[in-house]
Amino acid sequence: MSRPILKSAADIAKARIAGGLAADVLRMIAEHVKPGVSTEELDRLCHDHIVNVQKVIPANVGYHGFPKTVCVSVNHVVCHGIPSPQKILKKGDIINIDVAVIADGWFGDTSRMYFVGEPSPLARRLVETTYEAMRAGILQVRPGATLGDVGHAIQTVAHRENFSVVREYCGHGIGQIYHEDLQVLHYGNRGEGLRLEPGMVFTIEPMLNAGKRETKELADGWTVVTRDHSLSAQWEHMVAVTADGFEVLTAWPDGTGSYAAIA
């Protein structure tokens, strides 16, 4: 693996702007996530906000042929769900919306979970545990720590609740390139892997399944589902390694609400 691209303070300032815009899309769409709405409509609203309000570029459109602005992954869809007019949200669904924008040549990339009405107790526990796992991973980030520390913290939280960690997909370096070489696994051993340095910027985006960890990709070449049809959840933040810890570059503009702050 090539050496990760270290960012200057000026670079991180640009990444922070892009990350903030991506987070703002997730704030905007929250009130529209309700029963009877199609995932296509959610995609249209996100596209219009990015292009017409923020006046930046939706990074996913056309990326390796992806046809839409956001990934919308419902229930047993692990990631990369393609918005569709046929997919209508119903009470009890859990969904992940994953958005990426390009602002002044810099990428912002983040995702979060939403409840459609009241979820089942299992669904709520899965979503809340996945957030806790992401938060635990982020809290490991500091100069001198390793990516193994991050992965170990995530899997420890997941396994405590008897959830499984998806292994086929991972976090990644990000900056002026959407997916830089650096890979952030969501499992691992303390002290192993790349040692973190100030200026590294990457995503931490664990996917946890209520059942087994195995996944499969559907015939559309994008949508990934759990093999056992169990529920799956994911959260994603962009993180910069600072001189003495970390900074979340995709912090929610309206705060974390009922979820624990990441600090």
UniProtKB/TrEMBL annotation:
Residues 14-243 form the Peptidase M24 domain. The keyword Transport does not apply. The keyword Metal-binding applies. GO terms for molecular function: initiator methionyl aminopeptidase activity; metal ion binding; metalloaminopeptidase activity. Binds 2 divalent metal cations per subunit. Has a high-affinity and a low affinity metal-binding site. The true nature of the physiological cofactor is under debate. The enzyme is active with cobalt, zinc, manganese or divalent iron ions. Most likely, methionine aminopeptidases function as mononuclear Fe(2+)-metalloproteases under physiological conditions, and the catalytically relevant metal-binding site has been assigned to the histidine-containing high-affinity site. GO terms for biological process: proteolysis. GO terms for cellular component: cytosol. Substrate binds at residues 80, 179. Keywords: Aminopeptidase, Hydrolase, Metal-binding, Protease. A divalent metal cation 1 binds at residues 98, 109, 236. Its cofactor is Co(2+); Zn(2+); Mn(2+); Fe(2+). It catalyses: Release of N-terminal amino acids, preferentially methionine, from peptides and arylamides. A divalent metal cation 2 binds at residues 109, 172, 205, 236. It is an enzyme of class 3 (hydrolase). SUPFAM superfamilies: Creatinase/aminopeptidase. Its EC number is 3.4.11.18. InterPro entries: Creatinase/aminopeptidase-like, Pept_M24, Pept_M24_MAP, Pept_M24A_MAP1. Belongs to the peptidase M24A family. Methionine aminopeptidase type 1 subfamily. Removes the N-terminal methionine from nascent proteins. The N-terminal methionine is often cleaved when the second residue in the primary sequence is small and uncharged (Met-Ala-, Cys, Gly, Pro, Ser, Thr, or Val). Requires deformylation of the N(alpha)-formylated initiator methionine before it can be hydrolyzed. Monomer. NCBIfam families: met_pdase_I (TIGR00500). This is Methionine aminopeptidase. The gene is map.
